[in-house]
């Protein structure tokens, strides 16, 4: 990170990802300017930012004085010109290529010499994104976080074919200084790394239910109380070696032919979508959520990640 003394950040967007990134950056004493198109979106984003810090306070990870100091590093603007001197520009706009390209066009009019122009997209390829740039196509990378990025420490970085040598590494260095665990992909691929792993697991979990082997609750129990806790302490390939390559060789030759090889959403998922049972947001999906204590559920979602908030917060 060449500007590690006092880097500055611009964030385009005011949604949950943007406000969470603002917590991460200001919590590390980084001057952070969020671009908000309207006063309404600015107020919404500021409330999300305050709520995130309030949750940190509830877990004794920050006090009121620290929150006040961090807040001094947060700025809002509705003028692209105010982002001109930013070292790292994070674009967290709608997952629409045309929208992102329009934003890049505005940024290229004002940016002076950014270290990296970074999209937090979870779906669009770095190559497609780079097509919307002329002057700074060589600075464009994807840095895909998981929500909320101030709690979940993992970020996957993806270059485009136009990305200049060193840009991905420069951005990774900045993110690592923000206490993130970063991987730089050797090449772009749909779903990057983590979502490929996650959806491979989803695919087989659904297959088990569709084959009548177990119901969803038992599949969840099997995952939560067998192998998942292990992988918060060691990695997949570490376990692969520890359990024995020869053992896994024999298991895979026996098992793989019986696993799902579906190349589209399984019928179970299609049926739920057709019925409009979309999960928590509609009150029903695989499960009925109408009687669930959602405060408890939300607390369990965040529970594994609070330990990663061990930042050196600014003192002034």
Would you kindly provide a written description of the structure presented here, covering whatever features stand out?
This protein is α/β, with parallel strands linked by helices. The chain is 42% helix and 12% strand. The chain has an eight-stranded mixed sheet with strand order 3-2-1-4-5-6-7-8. Helix 1 (16-26) packs across helix 2. The radius of gyration is 21 Å and the shape is globular.
Topology at a glance:
Elements: E1 8-12, H1 16-26, E2 31-35, H2 39-58, H3 64-71, E3 74-77, E4 88-91, H4 97-110, E5 116-119, H5 126-130, E6 140-145, E7 154-159, H6 167-177, E8 181-184, H7 194-210, H8 216-225, H9 236-243, H10 245-255, H11 267-275, H12 294-302
Parallel strand pairs: 1-2, 1-4, 2-3, 4-5, 5-6, 7-8
Antiparallel strand pairs: 6-7
Helix pairs in contact: 1-2
Q: Into which percentage range does the β-strand content fall?
A: 5-15%
Q: Can you count the helices?
A: 12
Low-pLDDT segments, ≥5 res? none
Strand order of the largest sheet: 3-2-1-4-5-6-7-8
Task: List how many beta strands DSSP finds.
Answer: 8
Question: Could you tell me the radius of gyration in angstroms?
Answer: 21 Å
Shape: globular
How does the major sheet shape up?
8 strands, mixed
**Strand-pairing-aware structural class:** alpha/beta
Fraction in helix: 40-55%
Quote the distance from N terminus to C terminus.
23 Å
The oligomeric state of the chains shown is single chain
Which H/E pattern describes the elements? EHEHHEEHEHEEHEHHHHHH
Mean pLDDT: 96
